[in-house]
Amino acid sequence: MAVKITETILRDAHQSLIATRMTTEQMLPIIEKMDKVGYHSVECWGGATFDASLRFLKEDPWERLRKLRAGFKNTKLQMLFRGQNILGYNHYSDDVVEYFVQKSIANGIDIIRIFDCFNDLRNLQTAVKAANKEKGHAQIALAYTLGDAYTLDYWKETARRIEEMGADSLCIKDMAGLLVPYEADKLVKALKEGTKLPIQLHTHYTSGVAAMTYMKAVEAGCDIIDTAMSPFSMGTSQPATEVMVETFKGTEYDTGLDQNLLAEIANYFRPMQEEALKSGLLNPKVMGVDIKTLLYQVPGGMLSNLVSQLKEAKAEDKFYDVLKEIPEVRKDFGEPPLVTPSSQIVGTQAVLNVLQGERYKMVTKESKKVLSGEFGQTIKPFNPEVQKKAIGDVEPITCRPADKIAPQLAKFEEEIKEWKQQDEDVLSYALFPQVAMEFFKHRQAQQTKVDVNAADTKNQAYPV
Ligand code: CO
Predict the structure, then answer these.
(1) Which pLDDT belongs to residue 461?
(2) Which residues, listed in sequence order, are joined to residue 78 by a DSSP beta bridge?
(3) How far, in Å, CA of 236 to CA of 12, rounded?
(4) Taking burial as the number of CB atoms within 10 A of a residue's CB, which of 125, 171, 269, 320 is the most buried?
């Protein structure tokens, strides 16, 4: 069977390599060509793109989505969605999650890839149901990680439960590039035993094995792979689209995609890559192979966060101590995958443990939330001593965390009443209250400026 391709250049590729700074204006001129390729889907929204649009680019992410939708007439658009965290870092009430799914689909998303940083399936229920209801494609992604609890039986059984939950497909999300080729073969075969759903693989080139991993996975029956056009591929991004297309050419897995058309698209993005290298936005370091990610099982983005946290504390010499502490904290926290937001929570706690010279002398607010069950259940129990030290006699919750959150939408609506210009604004505000408010103010100031300019021109056109 032909293997299908999800193109990530409009989301994960630029998120991983250039801090999510690609603008809508940079995307629009090429989408007509991209629409002709025959991709399974184009990932273009969600993840960090929403936050970065509002915060750094002063762009309305909803407007971007509508413009992309208008241009992609034949291609499915895909987004990344963090379960009950939506695109933020906390749990939201069900009414916010449902409304976000509804508006994402209404504005043009076809496929929603939904994951939870603990792989706690209860945190995916609301989003999956909402996607089903809106007739979107609900893909559940499992965050891939290593550890003795993560056996092939665990993955197989989880795949079975995912199908039962109403997912339309399953994705293995290997954010750190930990999945090596021969393990991918075993994993895909195990998943296929657990489910009949189409299986997609998402990995990063960080550790240098990704293209080989894709090859073994496809041979084992993986249906769809995530790749990025060559100018923004490899390194901390995905394997190159053109390379994977060529790899399977003439075999039973042939993608059927046209290399000449892909070359034209690559030509469009290449100057953007050169510009980013020149300006320093693209650091050549992230384009190489970083074997530390296999040694320490830490995603690339997390490593760079650690370096900057230690730099700030003038404790760069403690880097390797922190790297050793991360697996310890992860164990105390029930061995979750390290992916947003668990990667930040575990990383920051590990830094504190090392800098304080005593473990859990200081415990972050987020660590306390994890240990009180507010992010859900991890594969293993929390370390009871650490839990006691962090939250004292507080009774940890064991139910689905969102069951404890009262509806929030009406309150958010009330708070932004005077700034609201479209229904979707309340969702931007729900996720990033300060950033969205600043954006609303900026938007209004721009509009006033435009009005004044228009009035000026009018006066000049009709002199008295
Ligand atoms: Co990714």
Answers:
(1) 43
(2) 43, 111
(3) 10
(4) 171
Q: Cα(136)–Cα(3) distance, rounded to whole angstroms?
A: 22
Positive or negative torsion for Cα 125, 131, 135, 139: negative
Beta strands 199-203 and 169-174: pairing type? parallel
Those residues of the chain that have pLDDT short of 70 are: 300-301, 453-464
Where do we find the tokens 């273009």? 44
Taking a 5 Å cut-off on Cβ, the residues next to ion ligand 1 are 12
* Ligand 1 centroid from CA 126, angstroms: 23
Could you tell me the CA-to-CA distances from 288 to 83, 263, 383 in Å, in that order? 31, 22, 37
CA distances from 230 to 233, 237, 246, 313 (A): 5, 10, 13, 37
**Cis bond before residue 341 (omega within 30° of 0):** yes
SS3 call for 366: helix
Residue in 175, 153, 154, 157 with CA at minimum distance from that of residue 165: 157
pTM score, two decimals? 0.94
Exposed, middle or buried by CB within 10 Å (0-12, 13-18, 19+), for 399? exposed
- In DSSP notation, 333-345 reads TT-----TTHHHH
- Cα of 203 vs centre of ligand 1, distance in Å, is 6
Determine the Cα–Cα distance for residues 23 and 5; give it in Å rounded to an integer. Answer: 23
Which residue reads 């909803």 in tokens? 62
The Å distance, Cα 29 to ligand 1 centre, comes to 25
pLDDT of res. 451: 74
Q: Take residue 262 and report the two structure tokens written for it.
A: 């892909």
